[in-house]
Amino acid sequence: xxxxxxxxxxxxxxxxxxxxxxxxxxxxxxxxxxxxxxxxxxxxxxxxxxxxxxxxxxxxxxxxxxxxxxxxxxxxxxxxxxxxxxxxxxxxxxxxxxxxxxxxxxxxxxxxxxxxxxxxxxxxxxxxxxxxxxxxxxxxxxxxxxxxxxx
Length: 151
Hints:
Layout: E1 5-9, E2 19-23, E3 26-30, H1 37-46, E4 52-54, H2 60-63, E5 75-78, H3 79-98, H4 106-115, E6 118-120, E7 125-129, E8 141-145
Parallel strand pairs: 3-4, 4-5, 5-6
Antiparallel strand pairs: 1-2, 2-3, 7-8
Helix pairs in contact: 3-4
């Protein structure tokens, strides 16, 4: 069986990371960040169509939209990525709050979003079993393994 693979970067910035990986009808969001209001709007628009999200790095350049787009799919990250990304986003919000640029409710949104992330270990298999959504029917299952890149 041949699969159709489509990879699309969602940010125009060379230092902000969010990409859509589509394998047949399975849609995977790789990282979740934005640089412009238009990029955030794009993420919000595609959020209902995403089947799973993988966070690869613990910086805001990879995770600053995770609490803004209300993903309804499983979100996976290694435990260090989950913990450090939450701290990085809270630090960014605190800095913006001190500058008078942010509302207080964003802390709660960050906590809620990051509590829902599923921690995985390197080399751990993630089984994603397909099902029916309002937009797509995903038959079968997908197995993903996170591998640490060797220097």
